[in-house]
Amino acid sequence: MTGQNQGGGPQQSRRRGQGELEGLVLAALREAPGPVNTAWVQGRLGGDLAYTTVITILTRLHAKGAVSRERAGRSFAWTPNADEAGLAALRMRKVLDAEADREAVLASFVTALPPGDEQLLRDLLAQAAEEGEG
C-alpha cells in the first residue's frame, strides 16, 4: 500500500525545505562522536530520507564550508565546521559577496534592523574590535 495510510487515503507528508534539512544534518553531525559516514547521518535522521538525499545535503554543506570530509575507504567521513548560526552567516556572506555595492548592502541591512538588533550588532562589533587589539 505504498502512498496510502491504513485508512486507504493518500498519505500527507510534509516536504521539508533545503535549509531545514541542512539544519537537521548539522545537528546530527554535532551529536556524532567524531567523523561519521553518510549511513550514520541517515540513521540519526530517522531513516525516512533516501541515502542519496543525505549525500546531496552533505555535499551542499561541504561546498558552503559548513562541513569537512575525509576519505574513509570508498566513501567519506563527515565533520561539522559550523552550527546553524554559522550556516546562516555563511549564507549571508555569500549574498553579500555577490553584490557589486557591498557598502550599500550593508548600510541597507543595518538601517533596517530593529533597535535591539542594531545595538546587539554594535556590541558584537565592539567586542570583535577589542579581541582584535588583545
Question: Can you describe this structure?
Answer:
The protein has 134 residues and is mainly alpha-helical. It is 58% helix and 9% strand. Strand 1 (67-72) and strand 2 (75-80) form a beta hairpin. Helix 1 packs across helix 3. This is BlaI/MecI/CopY family transcriptional regulator. It comes from Streptomyces peucetius. It holds the Pfam family Penicillinase_R. Keywords: DNA-binding, Transcription, Transcription regulation.
Quick overview of this protein structure:
With 134 residues, the chain is mainly alpha-helical. 58% of the residues lie in helices and 9% in strands.
Write the layout of secondary structure elements.
Blueprint: H1 18-31, H2 38-44, H3 51-63, E1 67-72, E2 75-80, H4 84-98, H5 102-111, H6 115-133
Antiparallel strand pairs: 1-2
Helix pairs in contact: 1-3, 2-3
Pfam family, one: Penicillinase_R
InterPro entries: BlaI_family, WH-like_DNA-bd_sf, WH_DNA-bd_sf
Family: Belongs to the BlaI transcriptional regulatory family.
